[in-house]
Write a structure and sequence with these properties.
Elements lengths: L14 E3 L2 E3 L9 E5 L6 E6 L3 H19 L3 H17 L1 H12 L3 H21 L6 E3 L7 E8 L2 E5 L7 H13 L2 E5 L5 H13 L7 E3 L7 H10 L3 E7 L2 H11 L5 E5 L4 E5 L5 H13 L9 E7 L3 H13 L19 H16 L3 E4 L18 E4 L6 H4 L6 E7 L2 H9 L3 E2 L1 E5 L3 H10 L4 E4 L14 E2 L2 E2 L4 H6 L2 E8 L4
Parallel strand pairs: 7-8, 7-10, 8-9, 10-11, 12-13, 12-18, 13-16, 15-16, 18-19
Antiparallel strand pairs: 1-2, 3-4, 5-6, 6-22, 11-21, 14-15, 17-20
Helix pairs in contact: 1-7, 2-4, 2-6, 3-4, 3-6, 4-5, 9-10
Enzyme class: oxidoreductase
Family: Belongs to the aldehyde dehydrogenase family.
Protein name: NAD-dependent succinate-semialdehyde dehydrogenase
């Protein structure tokens, strides 16, 4: 199968600023960075490598467009966002191919991500007309008191590479629905999907300047983002990525007191109690762990299995993991694609080697994969480790790959303590049939998202976000729209 787009003009290689597709400014017109296919390291495109001048122009355009966009009636704005949803759906196959080309995930997953992205656009198109304020009971007669939601202003959106469609849609859709204008910087590894989505947004009728996007390499990203951090007109940052970068953004935003939505690192526990339905638990772990090859922020990073069912669970899990088909997206039978780049594979390799050196045992996988069909060094075998301990790197850091370290436990109190023994608190999972335990453990786990007998958590109607070093703010749901608004209190007197 070839990943050839039906509509080749979806591949955009320049910035979109003020409704125009433009090259770099400040004498850097020729500066480009390569976007490569992680499956075979082939070049897909050369994309404009933006800098400070491009970021400034994008902020200027967004600021200039804000007054008219915020004044657009909610119904009219919602119709534009809904049209964007329709165009995303109409181009789902091409967008899925683009995701598979630049990110590496199998095509079925790429198209599935497009559907997931579209669900957020549809949700927030509907929410745009449901953003109601409050009438506050007045303490004295002759007074009317109201709380009115208003858009925060210009929003800077910074997205990661692992879900190049879903992450940008999940941020831009509520921004537009709230009446904000946007400047965006997609991940350097996967800018093409984001650029294509912006093209479709303009075709849907998003006015010039309302949605601006600047592409940049890893080296140029600080120059772009620093402009938006310093600009007082940029009133909010929405970022998904690592905790150290999130902390930097929070520190640098303090000078202008920007509103922040930070979805940062995770270290999700997955607990299997002795009364769990083991087949259901294995199904849940497979769904949660191996989506996108384990390159997700909510995938289980530490798996705890009660000693009474440990061996049976590991046997079932190993059989399923060993049967996974690894290959490029161009192979329709592939279930796991390549990792995004060499750095990702090196980290996975380091974690596995560290675990083995500290006493873990490899049950399945544990190695890089090579072969005629695997035309890059970015493939790693889906792996199951047993006898994992808290002292191992894989227990302390996100592996962000297809590795399952299994730890045996004895008591509920013990496993809750281990699950919470991390600075992160994005997602957590557990399997049990005991209703009393379900309530106890749900309350005890320190995470923003908890899956109970369920491995697939995300939905556009649900609030997505973490606690502790996993950040703050929520995406999706009614709360996701509120994160792009502030409340204005209006007190009108003299009514009697």
């Amino acid at each position: 199968m070839t990943l050839t787009l039906t509509r080749t003009d979806l591949i955009r290689t320049r910035h979109c600023i003020g409704g125009q597709w433009v090259d770099n400014r400040d004498g850097r017109e020729a500066a480009r960075h390569a976007v490569t296919n992680p499956a075979d390291l082939s070049a897909i495109a050369e994309v404009a490598d933006g800098g400070a001048a491009d970021a400034q122009a994008a902020a200027d355009a967004a600021h200039a467009a804000f007054a008219s966009w915020r004044a657009t009636p909610a119904k009219a704005g919602a119709a534009i966002v809904r049209k964007w949803h329709d165009l995303i759906q109409a181009h789902a196959q091409d967008l899925g191919k683009l995701i598979s080309l630049e990110q590496g995930k199998p095509l079925a997953e790429g198209v599935g991500e497009v559907q997931y992205a579209a669900s957020y656009v549809q949700w927030f198109a509907e929410q745009a007309t449901r953003s109601n304020g409050e009438i506050i009971p007045a303490p004295v007669s002759g007074r009317r008191m109201m709380a009115v939601p208003e858009p925060v202003g210009v929003v800077a959106v910074i997205t990661p590479w692992n879900f190049p469609a879903a992450m940008i849609a999940r941020k831009i859709a509520p921004a537009l629905a709230a009446g904000c204008t946007v400047v965006a910087k997609p991940a350097e590894d996967t800018p093409l999907t984001a650029l294509a989505l912006v093209l479709l947004a303009h075709e849907a009728g998003v006015p010039a300047g309302v949605l601006n996007i600047v592409a940049a390499s890893r080296a140029q990203t600080p120059a772009v983002v620093d402009v938006w951090l310093a600009d007082d007109r940029v009133r909010k940052i929405s970022f998904t990525g690592s905790t150290p970068v999130g902390m930097h953004l929070a520190r640098q935003s303090a000078a202008t007191l920007k509103k922040l939505s930070l979805e940062l690192g995770g270290n999700a526990p997955f607990i299997v109690f002795e009364d769990a339905e083991l087949d259901a638990a294995v199904d849940g772990l497979m769904a949660a762990k191996f989506r996108n090859g384990g390159q997700t922020c909510v995938c289980p990073n530490r798996v705890y299995v009660h000693e009474a069912v440990h061996d049976a669970f590991v046997a079932k899990l190993a059989a399923r993991v060993g049967a996974l088909k690894v290959g490029p997206a161009s192979d329709t039978s592939s279930q796991i694609g390549p990792m995004i780049n060499a750095r990702a594979v090196e980290k996975i390799e380091r974690h596995v080697n560290d675990a083995v050196a500290k006493g873990a045992r490899v049950v399945v996988g544990g190695r890089r994969l090579q072969g005629a069909a695997l035309a890059s060094p970015n493939y790693y075998a889906p792996t199951v480790l047993v006898d994992a301990t808290p002292a191992m790197d894989c227990a302390c850091e996100e592996t962000f790959g297809p590795v399952v370290p299994v730890t045996r436990f004895s008591t509920e109190a013990e496993v809750i303590a281990q699950a919470n023994a991390t600075p992160y608190g994005l997602a957590a999972y557990f399997y049990s049939q005991d209703v009393r335990r379900i309530h106890r453990v749900t309350d005890a786990l320190e995470a923003g998202i908890v899956g109970v007998n369920e491995g697939a958590l995300a939905a556009e109607a649900a609030p997505f976000g973490g606690v502790k070093h996993s950040g703050y703010g929520r995406e999706g749901s009614v709360h996701g729209l509120e994160d792009y608004q502030h409340l204005k209190y209006v007190c009108q007197g003299g009514l009697q």
